From TrEMBL:
Residues the record lists as binding ATP: G15, R76, C77, G106, D107, G108, S109
Any one biological process term the GO annotation gives: fructose 1,6-bisphosphate metabolic process
Regulation: Allosterically activated by ADP and other diphosphonucleosides, and allosterically inhibited by phosphoenolpyruvate.
Annotated Phosphofructokinase domain residues: 7-280
A single Gene Ontology CC term: 6-phosphofructokinase complex
Organism of derivation: Puia dinghuensis
Protein name as annotated: ATP-dependent 6-phosphofructokinase
Keyword field: Allosteric enzyme, ATP-binding, Cytoplasm, Glycolysis, Kinase, Magnesium, Metal-binding, Nucleotide-binding, Transferase
UniProt subcellular location: Cytoplasm
Length: 325
């Protein structure tokens, strides 16, 4: 028989994402509501290894739902890749009697959690917290909506100045190997071209399209490029060489996309997922990632959550082509 989860640890790991605080708050308050002791593990797996673990109370998470970043801090931790690091981390959890974990992070963090749960038999629940939305088993990840809205706001502003000067802007957005931020923000801002790693860019087609627009005296163009595709500077170099008359500028949005107050959507999914993480531990639904699919909670075994990526629908790619023509 599985033992009852009575003391849980919550941590944020990998790149931070707006809404992580809302998720921490939900885990802490749902845990306390159910009579559990809740601990905050600082700086992701680093704090687990360094024994930087603090008791959390209802008041510890007051006034944070609206804040970006993460009150628990986050980190990337090399030692956790090694068995010895994980053993040390588990030793610290054991000393405190922590017998359940909630890990808020991306697929890398889930890979670590999966190993820990297999090696030391501690139940782990993953919550998808990443602006990249590059995790299968969920329609949205915590932080994606905020990041996309930040990108949209920035691109709208860039279009104002692009329009005033008849310029071509190449705007690079984040997303690691995934093109979701580029795709969503590009469609929402009416970008003329969107370059994403999931679809091979035909440079000839891109240049010919721009030349055709130039012939039609359409001089304002916004090209949104995902960082996982080729870099914005690379694209600019090609365009400057092939179309010297185009007044071209580059803007890399960068880490601005990771900060700021989470949107209502991110606060909501983070709260639902955090609540569901604790419920899952109580119900014995262990070693799963909690997602939301078709507005319902969805549970994916951790080992599957780390392997699969979301797929970009062909329909979306068609929309980009038609609307930008
Ligand atoms: P994200 O969770 O945002 O994808 P990372 O890929 O940087 O971020 O992973 C965060 C942390 O998770 C790493 O620094 C490491 O501590 C842990 N981790 C990632 N992959 C593994 C792995 N294969 N084995 C053990 N730990 C891992
Ligand atoms: O995974 C989130 C993310 O912001 C990616 O979009 C980006 O490639 C990466 O993290 C940047 O990482 P760092 O925090 O190391 O600059």
């Amino acid at each position: 028989m599985e033992s009852k989860v009575t003391k849980i640890g919550v941590l944020t790991s990998g790149g931070d994402a707006p809404g992580m605080n809302a998720a921490i708050r939900a885990v802490v308050r749902t845990g306390i509501y159910n009579g559990m002791e809740v601990f905050g593990i600082m700086r992701g797996y680093s704090g687990m290894i360094d024994n930087d673990i603090v008791p959390m109370h209802s008041r510890s998470v007051a006034n944070i739902i609206q804040r970006g970043g993460t009150i628990l801090k986050t980190a990337r931790c090399k030692e956790f890749f090694e068995y010895e690091g994980r053993k040390k981390a588990y030793g610290n959890l054991k000393k405190l009697g922590i017998n359940g974990l909630v890990i808020i992070g991306g697929d890398g963090s889930f890979r670590g959690a999966h190993k820990l749960s297999e090696e030391f038999d501690i139940p782990c629940i993953g919550l998808p917290g990443t602006i990249d939305k590059d995790i299968a088993g969920t329609d949205f990840t915590i932080g994606f909506d905020t990041a996309v809205n930040t990108a949209v706001e920035a691109i709208d502003k860039i279009r104002d100045t692009a329009d005033a000067h008849d310029r071509l802007f190449i705007i690079e957005v984040m997303g690691r190997d995934a093109g979701y931020i580029a795709l969503h923000s590009g469609i929402a801002t009416g970008a003329e071209n969107i370059l994403i790693p999931e679809r091979k860019t035909d440079i000839e087609e891109l240049v010919n399209g721009l030349l055709e627009k130039e012939r039609r005296r359409k001089l304002v163009n916004i090209i949104v490029v995902a960082e996982g595709d080729r870099g914005a500077e690379d694209v600019a170099d090609i365009i400057k060489e092939r179309i010297p008359s185009a007044d071209t500028r580059v803007c890399v949005l960068g880490h601005i996309q990771r900060g700021g107050a989470p949107t209502c959507m991110d606060r909501l999914i983070a709260s639902r997922m955090g609540y569901s993480a604790v419920e899952s531990l109580i119900e014995g639904r262990h070693n799963v990632m909690i997602g939301i699919v078709n507005n319902k909670m969805h549970y994916t075994p951790l080992e599957k959550a780390v392997k699969a990526k979301q797929k970009i629908s062909d329909d979306w790619l068609k929309i980009v082509k038609i609307l930008a023509s």
